[in-house]
Amino acid sequence: MSMANENIQLGQAMQAALQEANTALHTWLEHYRPYTSNGRCAAYIPALANADPSQLGVTIIGSDGKLAQSGDCEALFTLQSVSKVIGFIAACVEHGAAYVLERVDVEPTGDAFNSIVRLEVHKPGKPFNPMINAGAITVSSLLGGKSPQQKIDSILAFIEKMVGRRVGINEEVYQSEWQTADRNRSLAYYLKGTGFLESSVEQALEVYLKECSIEVHTQDIAMIGLVLAHDGYHPFRKEQLFPKEVAKLAKALMVTCGMYNASGKFAAFIGVPAKSGVSGGIMAAVPTHASAPDSPFPAGCGIGIYGPAIDEYGNSVAGGMLLKHIAKEWDFNIF
Amino acid sequence: MSMANENIQLGQAMQAALQEANTALHTWLEHYRPYTSNGRCAAYIPALANADPSQLGVTIIGSDGKLAQSGDCEALFTLQSVSKVIGFIAACVEHGAAYVLERVDVEPTGDAFNSIVRLEVHKPGKPFNPMINAGAITVSSLLGGKSPQQKIDSILAFIEKMVGRRVGINEEVYQSEWQTADRNRSLAYYLKGTGFLESSVEQALEVYLKECSIEVHTQDIAMIGLVLAHDGYHPFRKEQLFPKEVAKLAKALMVTCGMYNASGKFAAFIGVPAKSGVSGGIMAAVPTHASAPDSPFPAGCGIGIYGPAIDEYGNSVAGGMLLKHIAKEWDFNIF
Amino acid sequence: MSMANENIQLGQAMQAALQEANTALHTWLEHYRPYTSNGRCAAYIPALANADPSQLGVTIIGSDGKLAQSGDCEALFTLQSVSKVIGFIAACVEHGAAYVLERVDVEPTGDAFNSIVRLEVHKPGKPFNPMINAGAITVSSLLGGKSPQQKIDSILAFIEKMVGRRVGINEEVYQSEWQTADRNRSLAYYLKGTGFLESSVEQALEVYLKECSIEVHTQDIAMIGLVLAHDGYHPFRKEQLFPKEVAKLAKALMVTCGMYNASGKFAAFIGVPAKSGVSGGIMAAVPTHASAPDSPFPAGCGIGIYGPAIDEYGNSVAGGMLLKHIAKEWDFNIF
Amino acid sequence: MSMANENIQLGQAMQAALQEANTALHTWLEHYRPYTSNGRCAAYIPALANADPSQLGVTIIGSDGKLAQSGDCEALFTLQSVSKVIGFIAACVEHGAAYVLERVDVEPTGDAFNSIVRLEVHKPGKPFNPMINAGAITVSSLLGGKSPQQKIDSILAFIEKMVGRRVGINEEVYQSEWQTADRNRSLAYYLKGTGFLESSVEQALEVYLKECSIEVHTQDIAMIGLVLAHDGYHPFRKEQLFPKEVAKLAKALMVTCGMYNASGKFAAFIGVPAKSGVSGGIMAAVPTHASAPDSPFPAGCGIGIYGPAIDEYGNSVAGGMLLKHIAKEWDFNIF
């Protein structure tokens, strides 16, 4: 909650602006909270099903260290598909983007996140993009380290660099994921059969499902969003964590495929690179240039949202509405 | 060639910068011209098949009126799928975006531009986006005017406002398109059967194919790109030609679905909203904020490219390479 | 009602057996008639929608001229998809089976009768079989005669030879079909685009839809079934109307693809070559060898059924049940 | 080689007819043997790849015990997909057909034998028929016995009853199958996820792949074909081994889906229920009624063919031609 505050001295005018931003954010969040009842928590594992559907939280971290938060911003949740962006970046850092892109394409599909059809219909069965399960499982086999544990450790270390704290795996969620992973195993064996999976199926799945089970709060993903907004540069650590080209690529993927089958609508009506997970998380990156000069975050920001009641596409219902409102009010749009 | 020059007085420093930009552009264009031999002209109608595959031309128009050009920038070609963006915007202006979006979605597909599969598989068969034929035919039935002639006149008038001259239809191309339109008729009758086509099939096709047959040169589409870059505002006419929301929506569609089945790759590796056609045209929009301050076009620009030798996806081979090079050198990227 | 009776002298024992068969048939028919309420008449055109859903009729004609009938056996209905078998045979007679089979395959699909997906997914787009619309439209372009009228005349003459009377086209049905033919036009234009349609789309559709609109009663299709049962030989006219090989081929198609997406179930649980139409007709052929020696029709028979209340697959609900019962009781099964 | 001979006393005229049949069979077999060069042995595992592609053998066993054989009729090969019929019958015997049919449908698909697409596209993902891998894996989980070993033992015992000798599993083939089973594992996990698989994936696969690896010669499958021809009745043991309804159902499935994606063509041009495997085996059943009275096998027969050079569909090239020739010459056809 405090890392940004510790690192950065805010001037008085900035404090006033921040106060104003927080007030606005709070009003908006409470305005959209009732819409959580239009969604339902993901039901395929108990840990997700038992989430409180009325929760809604947001954290925004500005490039200058401004921190605006509201609602259930400290609630813990698992990354789920939000981890797909992080894993993709980590694999590119490990092997170079070219190597990764030989094993996964970057084209949107319009198919369900867990669809297997295209692997059969489009020869030779290269996964269409790393934001769907087939692609993400492939990518998880490319992470740094030999054993699954090493691969997971490398991801956790990578996240720590970005968010400033060590996050961990929710073992209960992971165990549930592991036990209900039939469809993902089906995808993984298909990929093994067509040669797109480097490690064994079981190892790839362990890594993939542990990534999905990494537990965070909204500030964590806001921080990752902020690093993405700055093309891989950490504005507080003042360190380039991954290449600009990889950041651009990741943000392009977030826009074209980041919000499940509503990605096109998010691009069209919100215009901010974002990635969602079925746990209700949304991670968004607002580059400096896509932020209005008169907004509270004129130099760009990272946004983390959590709202476990999701819609038919898998995206947080109220979270998506809140992001749209923020983007409109503060004129965040890359297009 | 001259509209921009006539309207705008350029200072001396600017003249020097422009000279430099033109020189660079010329070098790059001639560097990529040999790659035209990696592609082939579209072969389904004689008028396209008979194009000179070695042609390559580019026009860039800056928000300040700067005009950089090189190669076959004055060669005439038909809009083909580039017209899909224009038709979509015009339909939104006529009916409001909400009305249009009830009849066509904004989601990318990963399918071929002329694919019919998704209309059957995804009930109720709403076209996935206006950048594929099914969606564009639907949109063509929504243009202003009752008769096909009126609809085409309204499109031509709309284009005239943007490019500053009256463009026309290449009748030879249109006749050929009409005679080889079996697949498009198949799509149109399918849409008629599912209720997504407002006009008759024959009328919708006449409008659609005439739009495809509108003849332009690179400066024309660069101008349209420039208006898109400015969110519908014409920087020389100083007039808002269509709503900002529609422009954002159109640019989002260009990014997610504008470059056929290489849209994801264009987003990932170039990062500039662009729309291509099988005639070899590429129209790109670089918003002010996505342009580097030290580039020759710091306030954004529109780019028009023509190179009739296309690749397996339907995009100009050398044109795509040139666009990528320009975007990299001058740091144009929305992400 | 009488053609068979006129032609054939029945012995007294045979008369008794026939009486018994008729009684049994009547009992069964009335037993299954209430099940008509489990189905609904096809609703896409008024003439079908307005049929009386409680109707159920059957005619069985034995190779020896025995005629058993019950229920609404004289009700008139249009052939609809039952015509697909007849058109296929006629085209084979006209061009030879080899020629026809270059333009349409004989493989079942598991897809809907009006599906277009496979034409795109399986290159080069040859229709999978003549029992689905895509295949039947292709076949209709191969009928004898140059104009649509000549082609229809040749079909009507062909039917006359089999059924012993001139049947005609229900013009009201045809007009309705023509006006609601968007999907069929879509299929036809697709086939035109891929080169599988010999005539113009409009001509092929006129022929196809007129075939569908041919009006018959159950005895008509029972007679055609009888000729099929005898491998193209007309047992009363004592004339080979079409080659044995074509008859075998047609019956194989009826078994593998004749009952829409319930063809497998009809084969598995009934075992009699049959073809249905959405108007509620079922035409079945029981070859001599597939008929039990102690049944009332030991030398095989043709069966015509009409019951306009159809199920989700498009097959007459009570008609299918009645056919199953008849086949079981009298041990008709080709397997 | 001799069981039939031992059990049955053949009269002298019959001996002469048999001699003639054997001579004819030999001539035909050697005529078609050169066509083996048009095919290739399955290459996905060494044991199949190393088969002698020029081999071709046939055994026909008549209902009266007549045994005609030619060529490589004693060569051993693994059942592969021929086992799908046997497993399906055994599961029906164990649970009743109704129970089995709740877990697998009986509709042909037109898709590849190992296709996964339809499981996703057609909700709720019930396998379309037991002759494709998805269906056969489901069925293998329904065999009698608790452990995989018990299930395999029950299948081997069932086969023994039909063929009169204990056949075994080719362990080398099984090990290879197990190691290259990625696609089958993908199918099995998909089915597990949708609830259509009763046992664990690993157990179902062990059973399925061991069934595929059962080693036989042509006389074995000819005997099974003979029992099928007699609707489950063993004409030499004089014992009903499985219900008539199950036999009819199995033969219907062989006709509609038994010969991979050439099933329609086999039905149309040969007309004999048959099941093939990628090892080059074909098992066919000619019911009494479908056999010409003046053929050497007037009371029906079972046919076993082996020819490891297979075509693009997965069917023995020369084996299919030989079966077609036999069926034509001796007038075997169920239609």
From TrEMBL, chains A, B, C, D:
Record-annotated membrane-spanning stretches: none
Domain of life: Bacteria
Catalytic activity entry: L-glutamine + H2O = L-glutamate + NH4(+)
Pfam families according to UniProt: Glutaminase
EC number per UniProt: 3.5.1.2
InterPro entries according to UniProt: Beta-lactam/transpept-like (IPR012338), Glutaminase (IPR015868)
Swiss-Prot/TrEMBL keywords: Acetylation, Hydrolase
GO MF annotation: an example: glutaminase activity
Subunit: Homotetramer.
Assigned protein family: Belongs to the glutaminase family.
Protein name: Glutaminase
Organism: Paenibacillus arenosi
Lineage of the species this protein comes from: Bacteria, Bacillati, Bacillota, Bacilli, Bacillales
